[in-house]
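Hi Y.,

Following your request, here is the sequence exactly as I used it, all 479 residues.
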Amino acid sequence: MTGSNYEKDFLYSLMAPSKGSLCPFSYLMTSSFEKNNFDSFRQEVFLGRVHTAYEMLLRMFEDSEDKESFLIEASIPAHEKRHFVDLTATTFGLYLFKHNWALCVSFFLLLQSLSKEGIKVSLPLREWCKSKNCPEEVKSFVHIYEYTEKRLSKEIGIGKPESMPKEYVPQQYDMILTKLEADNVTLPSVGFLGVDEYNIYPINGLVILEGIATIVQYNYISKINKELADKWWEKLSNNPQLWMYWSVPNILTKMVGLSNEQSLIVLEWALMIPADFTNNSPELDPAWRLYYIANYLARSKKSNQNIKKSIEEFLKLQKWRTTAEVVTLTDNYITNCFSEMKIDANDPLSTVMHEYMLSFKRSLTVRKDNPLVGFDYLEKFDSLPPMTRTISPDGVVSIKMKKTDSEIDEIKNQGWLSYLIISRSIYDSISKKHISCPFSLEKKHSNFPHSNECNCNLDLKNCTVSQVMQLTGVQFNQF
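Below is the corresponding structure, written out as C-alpha cells. Let me know if you'd prefer a different format.
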C-alpha cells in the first residue's frame, strides 16, 4: 500500500464509530488529522471574517500536493461537529446520553463505594464476577451494563449486511427499501442491486447519524471543489465497507429523489423522536421513522414539494405527533429534569448533565419557531465545550478544550473531561485487563496505571485517566 493510500485509509478510520463502547463516544469530541496547518483559517472564522477564511481555504487547496487528502482532512471536523450537535440537540441524542450518563453514574458510585470499603478492583469485571470473593454490588453493575448494552446495541451497534437473490424483487430496481430478519427481530433496511443479488444493509440510529454527517461533509467539500466532491462521493459509495456513510443518503437522493438539503431535514426529523422513552412504537425508533417517511415520499412522488409540509402530511396520515408537539413534549421533559436536578460542584457527572440539559434547552428555543431547523443553524450554536483531538502525521495526539476565563468554566471543562474518560473506561473495565487512554490512537494506547506512557498532550503532569480515577481513590489490580 502506498503512503498516500495508507494516509487516506487512516483518515477514513478517524471517521469510524467508536468500537466497543456503548455510547458513540467519539461524537462528544471532534477529531482531525493535520498534515496541513489550518490555524490561520480557523482564526479568520473565529473573528467572523468568513469570506477571507473561505478564500484562504481555496488558496491552501490550490497549493496542496494531494488534493483528495486535503479535502478529506479539511472536512473531517465538519463531519465530527455535526455528530456532536446531533448528539446534543436531538431527542435521539438525548436518549443515548441519558442511558450512557446513568451508566457512568452507576460505575462512578461503584468505584467510590469499593474505595471506601478498601476493596481493590480486579479487571476485567466480567472475570471478577466469576470468583467467590466478588462483591454483589460489582455483579449488580455488570448486570446493569449488560442490560444497557443489549438495549442500546440495536440503535448504535454496527449491523451486519446480508444478501438477497435479485429474483426476490419482482421488478429489478437498483435500490430498494426492505426489511431484514436478524435474531428474531425485523429491521428496516436498504438494498442495492449487485451482479447477482441485492446487498442489504440494516438501518439504525448510528447509520442515520453517519448519513447526516457524511452529507454535511460532502457539502463542505463541494464548496471547495464540486468536481472532486462528486468523485469523492462516488468512490465512497463504491466501497461496501463504508456502507454506513453512504447507504441512507443514496436511498434518499437517488431513489426518493430528494436534494441533499431535503435529505438532511428528513434525517434530522428521524432523530427528533418524541421524548417518551418508555414506549416501543415505530414512532420512537429513528430507523422505522426513516423507513416509513422514505416509503411515503417515494410513493407519493412529493420530492419536489416543500419537504417540511410533506413530513407534516405524513404525520397526519400516520396519526403520529407533529414536530411542534414533539418539541413541546421534549421541552416539558427537560424542564422536569431541571426541577429534579441537584448540582454538586465536586461531582463532575452532575455538572455534565446540567450543562447538557442547559444546551439542549437552548436548542429547543430555536426549534419552537422552526422545529426542523435543518443545516444552517449548526454554526450558530455555541455548544457545549467539546474536546478537540488533533492527530499529527507522526501519530502524536493533542487534546484541546475551550479556553476558560473563570473557575466555573474550568469546573465545566473538568466535568466533561471526567465524563468522557469514565464513559470509555467502563467498556475497558468490563472486558479488558487494563484501562486505555480514550484519546490515544488504537496502536498507541496508554495502559492505566502506567501514566507516563500516555502520548496525549494535555499540559498535565499525569495521564488524565489516572487523574480522573484518582477522584475515586480506587486501586486497580490486574486480574
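The two ends are 39 Å apart (CA to CA).

Thanks again,
Q.
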